[in-house]
Design goal:
Distance between the termini: 46 Å
Helix content: 40-55%
Radius of gyration: 19 Å
Strand order of the largest sheet: 3-2-1-4-5-6-10
Largest sheet: 7 strands, parallel
Number of helices: 12
CATH topology of one domain: Rossmann fold
Order of helices and strands: EHEEHEHEHEEHEEHEEHEHHHHH
CATH class of one domain: Alpha Beta
Number of strands: 12
CATH architecture of one domain: 3-Layer(aba) Sandwich
Length: 333
């Protein structure tokens, strides 16, 4: 069986490809630019771009299963984000149907689900956010889900997984949260925002997605949550693992919201990827009750402790030379 992975060189893709290879699958990776995440693996790499439909057939031909991970995660508005997330998903669905792909696993996001900063339970019954303009990441992922479901109506067997904030090893680029962890471990993050999020290990997400590919009914969707923690809780975990002080300053949410546009502009001037933007500030105000009961019941999903995920992420950053080994207490104690 041949399995194609789009977005194979991202954080989730790097872990998924390794898990599929370990399972004994024949894996084909759709590559756009960076190949570091799959170097040295027994994987067939095919150049292509989900925004260019004519580039896809070579990769999709003969594939039995497609895992669609390719996405643009921008914490600011971006035309590229809409092109990749929405129209790219449409192109992937079309390529699957043209080439007789039997199964597609679509990776969505918790941000595609409409939920407010309350204690209301978030589960699969929640509606998708409106996506008439696709002005932010959540709207674009909701629109992408709708594109995937149109493929389902056309006869493509599709299942959808929606992870929360992802953490874990093989974070080559690194991800936004990976950069936060690196800044905390290096002691370069000046302060924290008084909020939190649900964090999940990338390897648990990958295993649930593989199980969904194997057993889920067409059209099924799963929320893959982990553990809700504040940013200060995360900083305390990093402090216990690394030789780094916890930032003393907690910026109130109202003040962080006012300052976010200016912080974003400042980071752009310095040619740095913005981390604390209006979108990210809104994200950490979401519900602390995200249910994974359906995934647990149907897929045997059991997320590991957040401390283990953060430790493994930091250890991998050391092995990848993005963080000094002496930064971690476990290396010298």
């Amino acid at each position: 069986m041949t399995i194609l992975v789009t977005g194979a060189t991202g954080h989730v893709g790097a872990n998924l490809v390794r898990a599929l290879v370990e399972r004994g699958s024949s894996v084909r990776a759709l590559i756009h630019n960076d190949r570091r995440a799959i170097e040295g693996l027994d994987v067939e790499a095919v150049q292509g771009d989900v925004c260019q439909p004519e580039s896809l057939d070579r990769a999709f031909k003969g594939a039995d299963v497609v895992y669609h991970l390719a996405a643009n995660l921008s914490l600011t508005t971006s035309r590229r984000m809409e092109a990749v997330n929405v129209y790219g998903t449409r192109n992937v669905v079309d390529a699957c149907l043209r080439n007789g792909v039997g199964r597609m696993v679509h990776f969505s996001s918790i941000h595609a689900v409409a939920h407010k900063p309350t204690r209301d339970l978030v589960d699969e019954s929640c509606r998708l956010v409106p996506s008439t303009r696709c002005s932010n990441y959540g709207e674009s992922k909701a629109a992408a889900e709708r594109e995937a479901r149109r493929g389902l109506e056309r006869g493509l067997s599709i299942v959808i997984v929606r992870p929360t904030a992802i953490v874990g090893p093989f974070d080559y680029q690194p991800s936004f949260f990976g950069e936060v962890l690196l800044s905390l471990a290096r002691g370069t993050l000046p302060g924290l925002v008084a909020g939190g999020f649900d964090w999940v290990d990338v390897r648990d997400v990958v295993q649930a997605a593989i199980k969904a590919e194997e057993v889920a009914r067409p059209g099924t969707d799963y929320l893959l949550s982990g553990h809700w923690s504040t940013l200060r809780d995360v900083a305390a975990i990093v402090h216990d693992l690394a030789h780094a002080d916890i930032p003393r300053f907690d910026c109130p949410l109202w003040l962080a919201g006012l300052a976010a546009p200016f912080a974003t502009a400042y980071d752009r001037i310095r040619n740095r990827r913005p981390l604390f933007t209006s979108f990210s500030i809104n994200a950490i105000q979401t519900s602390d009750r995200v249910s994974h009961e359906k995934a647990t019941r149907e897929l045997g999903y059991q997320p590991r402790p957040l401390t283990s995920s953060i430790e493994d992420a930091l250890r991998w950053f050391c092995e990848a030379r993005q963080l000094s080994p002496q930064s971690l207490k476990t290396y010298d104690e």
